[in-house]
Amino acid sequence: MARKCVALRRDGGRCNGTATTGSAWCPSHDPERAEDRRQAARKAALAKHAPDELTALKTRLKALMGDLEDGTIDARTGATMVQTSRALLATIQAENEMTTIAAVEKRLERISELERASRKWAN
Ligand SMILES: [Zn+2]
Questions:
Q1: pTM reported for the whole predicted model
Q2: Could you tell me the distance, in angstroms and rounded to a whole number, from the CA of residue 7 to the centre of ligand 1?
Q3: CA 8–ligand 1 middle distance (angstroms)
Q4: Where in the chain are the domains?
């Protein structure tokens, strides 16, 4: 018979998950899978926050490929559109980098505040 996971939930109750073979924990609580879970969460967060602009750009590029293929637009116009798309993509990437840097700076600031506060308490 399958064993129950030994982890406790946040509310203090026992996890209802089934322990994986050779482990005392279910896949959601197995400490050896913690890094996998963190990476999956990070990936999901990134996918969730994928800018609408990128999705729109992808849609337009796919349509452009179709238009080029069926001859609706000529190769020269297509090439210009691809160039413009690259410029747009570079702008989106620069914006994302700035947003990321701002978030990291904010986090570092918060860490510094906490360090200062803990030093004050230590003295
Ligand atoms: Zn569990």
A1: 0.51
A2: 5
A3: 7
A4: 1-49, 52-122
Q: With a cut of 50, which residues of the chain have pLDDT below it?
A: none
Q: Phi/psi at 18 (nearest 5 deg)?
A: -95, 130
Task: Spell out the SS3 assignment of the chain.
Answer: CCCECCCECCCCCECCCECCCCCCCCCCCCHHHHHHHHHHHHHHHHHHCCCHHHHHHHHHHHHHHHHHHCCCCCHHHHHHHHHHHHHHHHHHHHHHHHHHHHHHHHHHHHHHHHHHHHHHHHC
Q: How many whole angstroms from 25 Cα to the centroid of ligand 1?
A: 5
Instruction: Provide the pLDDT for residue 50.
Output: 67
What is the distance in A from the centroid of ligand 1 to the CA of 17?
5
Span 42-53, pLDDT tens digits: 887 776 666 788
Q: How far is the CA of 41 from the centre of ligand 1 (A)?
A: 17
Distance from C-alpha of 36 to C-alpha of 88, rounded to nearest angstrom? 33
How is residue 76 written in tokens?
A: 């020269």
